[in-house]
Design goal:
This protein is an alpha+beta fold and 150 residues long. The protein contains three helices and seven strands, in the order ααβββββαββ.
Length: 150
Amino acid sequence: MKNTIIAFALILFTACNSDDSVKDYTAENEEEIQAYIATNNLTAQISSSGLYYIVEEVGTGEAPTFTDNVTVAYKGYFTNGSVFDESDADGVTFNLQQVIAGWTEGITYFNEGGSGKLLIPSRLAYGNSGRNGIPRGAVLIFDINLIAVN
């Protein structure tokens, strides 16, 4: 019985120290976003969730809610400027409940015809998982143009 408990404890200890452990990127992301804002001489607002956003053009049309379908033209890149995804000028249509949290929240700061930037910490994007060319813990920046609220 004693050997079983020791073996279980070793397995548990080893599992907790694996590379798959969850890391809190909050402080790193905050530092990276602040450096990006300073380097690019930007004026950004921050929401209570930690999302940074810049409204360049608020737009004159309808404002979306968290449950709306929207059409957005965008370019997504890292703080080093490397682009990881981009739509064409016609944009893509999606429901705001089917995207990363940074988009669900961030798109609602614009009206139809609005444009700006979203600076998204990893906890509001892909966090510790990463995804198709996006490393875990990555800060994501999006230039967005809200074409339509559908």
